[in-house]
Amino acid sequence: MTITRSDQGKSTLPAAAAGQDRPELHKAIEEIVESGFLGVSLRVHDERGEWVGSAGVAELGGTAKPPVNGHARIGSNTKTFTATLVLQLVAEGKIELDTLAADYLPEFGLDRRITVRMLLQHTSGLFNFTGEVYDDGSIVHGIPVPYSTTGKEWVDNRFHTYRPEELVRLALSKPARFEPGTGWSYANTNYVLARLLIEKVTGRSLAEEMQRLILGPLGLSGTVVPDASPEIPAPHAHIYYCYEEDGQHKTIDITRYNPSWVSTGGDMISTTQDLHTFISALVGGKLLPAALLAEMCTPHATGIPNMDYGLGVFVQKTDCGGAVITHNGGNVGSATLMYSTPDGSKTLTSVLTWVDDAAMSIATAFPNAQQKLVNKVFCGEQADPARPAH
């Protein structure tokens, strides 16, 4: 069966989706669950219309499938929303991409070679406040995160509130990875500075500006800028964390936690429907002038095979030779995928949930799951989902 049905046996999907028979998509999400995930919900828009489905369970011990349009923490997809907002303010004449970030935010003593563009592009060289792994394998910790040796500390303090300025100052207390503009390194710090920049030049909160320029105009009623609130609207799947204490393995529900530890690096909440609406509007030119959209999607080398970075988006080559505009967001216990062809004619949005742990036990299965979905949707049956990327 390719659609989710309620206990009453009535279809919970729009007629357009319910009328489609897409066994290859249903099989793909079932196989992902079998590889170790709790649940998967998937939404595809393409030349055949819309398809929505889910597999697995919404919570441990339950039988209900994940809601097909449930709310989820979207992780680093937050960066795409934030970059879009900065570029909209560029269009309004309030920010200039190649102006020094220190001119807007003098209170931090930023390196005066760092521009706004470098923040959005991850070429500032700033230390990532969630920690850095260096080429020699050494790790420098920032704030406690759910992984490595700080996992239990993160669990115990998961309702603690961090302010954005605090995260930035922590990052600035650590050595930069490289001189501004001389390399590429993914750092949540860049996007917390982008948030502070937005709030400085507008005099309003990030949430207010997001509502004014993106959420309101697109009608994204399922999308939330939570700041420090641990709440997530219903319906939603649950997420979990497993850790060892006194020789015993414990699994706890961490669906509620304070997302301020990652701030604008990945704190937003949305739905697969809202993410489809957002990414298709973005690449379709409804949010940015053509010139700024072109700058956003201009790829800059990252050193990651087949993955270049623009301004708040990855430009990824597919196994079948095409390209997709994407970001995706991994969060503790969940991930949210967002992909679109450059013209917006085909999109994939998805939520995956699992029982997480400090060792990141899902680390191998997750890229395989991503690749499976991308190949099914953007490459049809030509690509082998098990074949690694070139």
From TrEMBL:
Residue ranges constituting the Beta-lactamase-related domain according to the UniProt record: 27-343
Keyword field: Hydrolase
One of its Pfam families is: Beta-lactamase
Region listing for Disordered, in residue ranges = 1-21
Ranges of Polar residues composition bias in the record: 1-11
- A molecular-function term among this protein's GO annotations: hydrolase activity
Record keyword Hydrolase present: yes
**Taxonomy, superkingdom:** Bacteria
Could you identify this protein by its name?
Serine hydrolase domain-containing protein
Organism whose genome encodes this protein: Nonomuraea rosea
Q: What is the lineage of its organism?
A: Bacteria, Bacillati, Actinomycetota, Actinomycetes, Streptosporangiales
